[in-house]
Amino acid sequence: MNIIDEILEHNRNFVANKEYEKFQTTKFPDKRLVVLSCMDTRLEELLPKSMNLRNGDFKHVKSAGAVVSHPFGSIMRSILVAIYELNAEEVVVVGHYDCGMSAINADSIMSKMKQKGIPEETFHIIKNSGIRLDSWLRGFDCVQDSVKASVEVIKNHPLLPAHVPVHGLLIDPVTGKLDRVVNGYELADAVE
Asked: 192 falls in which pLDDT band (50, 70, 90)?
């Protein structure tokens, strides 16, 4: 049985047994937080448990490395929607130690793309359209600096209210220990 058929079979039982009832909440985050984290599988359950967040407490946005790569991309749009439409009042960027994005190599990824059948012509078309895949696919050298950079993109966004705190944290993907990188309250106080 393939993975989608397994998922759908499980889902039929999940719904029939009303297992969804324990997850019911509203679309508004009870703790008024929007959290941007990495998509690392080790964080799926560890991150909310280590932050004392439960289903319904926060809006969770994910990207590779918890990176906001473009101020008008989908990550920033999600954060703004959480603030303006879903009553979030604070933003927390959570990077993690031992992040795979620190080892990402654009040339290696493009080589793997070619191995999986992406034609060379596609790379030329993308390059001729002005997109630099080598920088778009690049990772980062220092996770602390990356968290600070994402906080800066969010905090300095022209559509983000100045009073919204934007915090930066790092989590240990083994123990769940959190370290503060940016105190968003200090930044918010500085603009008041």
From this structure: low
Structural domain includes residue 19 = no
Same domain, residue pair 48 and 97: yes
User: In angstroms, how far is the first alpha carbon of the chain from the final one?
Assistant: 58
| pLDDT tens-place string over residues 51-100 | 999 999 999 999 999 999 899 999 999 999 999 999 999 999 999 999 99
> Are 50 and 80 in contact, with CB atoms under 8 Å apart?
no
* CATH number of residue 177's parent domain: 3.40.1050.10
Whether the Cβ atoms of residue 137 and residue 110 lie closer than 8 Å to each other: yes
Domain that holds residue 129: 105-138
Q: Is 142 labelled a binding residue?
A: no
Known binder of ligand: residue 124?
Answer: no
Domain count, the chain: 2
**Residue at 88 is within a domain:** yes
Instruction: Say whether 40 counts as a known binding-site residue.
Output: yes
Residue 99 marked ligand-binding: yes
Residues written for the chain: 192
